[in-house]
């Protein structure tokens, strides 16, 4: 038997899917929804609380409840629990990341803006000149994020952001450990140069080859 608060969740979900509500739209008041769905206002509040936790709603005190699309935190929680409960391996997480970046690259070579390319080049120059590894790591991550962002595909971007959070939590200092072998340093640096050049020159093959090389370093580390 469907619980009362589930009627609220299902109702809002259906309204969104049917195009009745979109991002930024305000939901009816709790009283109106309670009357419409024949449930208590307590059930309405519980349903709204669940939708807010999912990232579908933004509840603004004194103003009302609005449709939003902030699902990154929800994805982080889900991925973190999957990792912990299902025993997801580091390699599986890296393979998922590779799949996301590989697809993002094929889109970013067509959709990257001049500003995004310039920002990639800036972070590349900082990566090459920074003296501290924590600074280099920051610019390294930013380059990868910009490639995904340049795909202009929100599903890829949100999943990548969530996945990055999980990897940062569970696969700490991967870059440092990879670079313990000095001969990896220049090779890894070159993969980033080629990745940016691929986006700039709209060369999918060059970018795919760079990503393949980049993830060989990661897989070698994970398998060691």
Which short descriptors sum up this protein?
224 residues, mainly alpha, Arc Repressor Mutant, subunit A, Four Helix Bundle (Hemerythrin (Met), subunit A), 2 domains, two-stranded antiparallel sheet, 11 helices, elongated, DNA-binding transcription factor activity, transcription, DNA-binding, WH_DNA-bd_sf
Q: How would you describe this structure to a colleague?
A:
By secondary structure, this protein is mostly helical. It folds into 2 domains: 4-67, Winged helix-like DNA-binding domain superfamily/Winged helix DNA-binding domain (Arc Repressor Mutant, subunit A, Orthogonal Bundle), CATH 1.10.10; 73-223, GntR ligand-binding domain-like (Four Helix Bundle (Hemerythrin (Met), subunit A), Up-down Bundle), CATH 1.20.120.530. Helices cover 75% and strands 4% of the residues. It has 11 helices and 2 strands; from the N terminus they run H-H-H-E-E-H-H-H-H-H-H-H-H. The protein has helices at 4-17, 30-37, 41-54, 72-86, 90-111, 114-129, 133-149, 154-170, 174-178, 183-201, 204-223; strands at residues 57-60, 64-67. It has a two-stranded antiparallel ribbon. The longest helix is centred in the middle third of the chain and has 22 residues, at 90-111. The N and C termini lie far apart (51 Å).
């Amino acid at each position: 038997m469907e619980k009362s608060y589930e009627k609220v969740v299902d109702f809002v979900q259906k309204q969104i899917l049917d195009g009745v509500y979109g991002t930024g739209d305000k939901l009816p008041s709790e009283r109106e929804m309670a009357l419409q769905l024949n449930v208590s206002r307590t059930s309405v509040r519980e349903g709204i609380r669940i939708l807010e936790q999912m990232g579908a709603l933004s509840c603004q005190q004194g103003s009302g409840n609005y449709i939003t699309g902030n699902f990154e935190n929800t994805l982080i929680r889900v991925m973190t629990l999957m990792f912990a409960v299902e025993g997801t391996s580091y390699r599986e997480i890296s393979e998922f990341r590779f799949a996301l970046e590989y697809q993002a690259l094929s889109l970013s070579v067509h959709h990257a803006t001049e500003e995004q390319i310039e920002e990639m080049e800036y972070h590349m120059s900082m990566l090459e000149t920074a003296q501290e590894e924590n600074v280099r790591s920051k610019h390294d991550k930013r380059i990868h994020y910009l490639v995904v962002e340049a795909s202009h595909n929100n599903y890829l971007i949100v999943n990548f952001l969530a996945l990055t959070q999980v990897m940062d939590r569970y696969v700490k200092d991967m870059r440092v450990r990879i670079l313990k072998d000095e001969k990896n340093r220049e090779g890894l640096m070159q993969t980033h140069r080629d990745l940016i050049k691929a986006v700039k020159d709209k060369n999918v093959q060059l970018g795919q080859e760079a990503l393949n090389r980049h993830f060989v370093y990661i897989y070698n580390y994970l398998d060691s």
